Amino acid sequence: MKNKWRLLKIFSTIIIFGLLMYFSLTRFNEKKMEDILVHFVSSDDEKVYFLDEKRVIDFVKSKNPSGKVGDIDIPYLEKEINHFPSVDSANVYLNLNGKLHIDIQQRVPKFRLSKGDMNYYVDGDAQEFPTSPHYAHDVMLVSGNVKRTEYQKLIELVDKIKNDTFSKKYYIGIVKEKENNYYLITQDGHFKVELGDLHQLDYKLSGFKKFMEKYLMYQDPRKYTKISLRFDNQIVTTLRKGYQPEENKKAE
């Protein structure tokens, strides 16, 4: 008899607990969403602003017109936000207060590629994503018929330029003119620096830097049209056609 009463108490407790849970969940689901909190996560010191809080909030509200907690489809929202071109990863969750949290990590471009009529960014994972009408990130511009297989070496080149004080100030662009032949565009634009292929980058960049410090900085910057680093153990200069030193012009 005691066992029957014990079982009856257990079943009664389960039923009461179930009813309480049902009414609590029903009440919670009917509750209005208190707030949408968007947090942009950054994995490094470089900030990007392809997305802003308002655009994310407007998107969430458009997918939940009722504004009720119970109508929020969290897996769907997370999937859709992860499909935004500039989003690297997104995490969506709801707390017991009815506040929706959205953590977003955006893609950080390494360079911007201009290829024919197409313009897009390439991130650190060598993944392409489109440019934005709302925001332009300040990165190196790469032009030409660049192959996907070359992205990783270009990322390496861009990082080396960015992390060197001289190179960062001196180079403003990279151009692929033909297969395995890249040029660096300089700030003053008087001449191009021919890299050749994308191998031995440290050797080529440091070689040009030394050549600049020991020789070029004492020359008229208009003297040359091209400085070539493509050949092993030598730097080849191309004299500007018709160039005359200032002293020769004065003598005439």
Automatic annotation (TrEMBL):
Keywords: Membrane, Transmembrane, Transmembrane helix
Record field: transmembrane: 7-25
Membrane is among the record's keywords: yes
Transmembrane helix among keywords: yes
Protein name, UniProt field: Cell division protein FtsQ
Naturally occurring in which organism (per UniProt): Bergeyella zoohelcum ATCC 43767
